[in-house]
């Protein structure tokens, strides 16, 4: 496993996602301040794959420089506010999710339909509510 390659690819995915979030933020802002531009920008952005965010920004720069600069500014601000918390949160979430998946797997592996039926059919006087030996 090449850790450096994984780091590069992960950083690219995060960068692309932050670009997508910046676009959503700017569309929301424009909806309040300039609805016609918001409509145009939403339609323009809906046809793009944000897995290639840098290509999107280059093409947006050709169409509307102000919006492209605004996206870059918002993306940078998001990165500064979010990335500080990301590594510990990702590690904690992965650990918690893995533990839950392992628990579910262990339950499936150890589950026996015969055992479950035997337990349901078994008589336990100490648990029987209708036991008249009180």
From TrEMBL:
A Gene Ontology term for the protein's cellular component: carboxysome
Transmembrane segments: none
Coiled-coil residue spans: 50-77
Tree of life domain: Bacteria
GO MF assignments: protein folding chaperone
Main location group: other
Family the entry assigns: Belongs to the RbcX family.
Domain notes: The homodimer has 2 functional domains, a central cleft essential for production of soluble RbcL in which the RbcL peptide binds, and a polar surface which plays a role in correct RbcL subunit arrangement.
The protein's assembly and partners: Homodimer. Interacts with the exposed C-terminal peptide of RbcL via its central cleft, contacts a second RbcL monomer via its peripheral polar surface.
Protein's name in the database: RuBisCO chaperone RbcX
Native organism: Planktothricoides raciborskii GIHE-MW2
């Amino acid at each position: 496993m090449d850790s450096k390659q994984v780091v590069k690819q992960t950083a690219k995915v995060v960068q692309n996602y932050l670009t997508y979030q910046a676009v959503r933020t700017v569309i929301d802002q424009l909806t309040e301040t300039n609805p016609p531009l918001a409509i145009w920008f939403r339609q323009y952005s809906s046809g793009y794959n944000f897995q290639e965010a840098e290509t999107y920004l280059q093409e947006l720069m050709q169409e509307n420089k102000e919006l492209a600069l605004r996206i870059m500014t918002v993306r940078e601000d998001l990165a500064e506010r979010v990335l500080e918390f990301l590594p510990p949160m990702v590690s904690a979430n992965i650990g918690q999710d893995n533990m839950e998946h392992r628990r579910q797997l262990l339950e499936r592996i150890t589950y026996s339909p015969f055992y479950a039926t035997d337990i349901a059919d078994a008589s336990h006087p100490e648990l029987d509510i209708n036991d008249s030996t009180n």
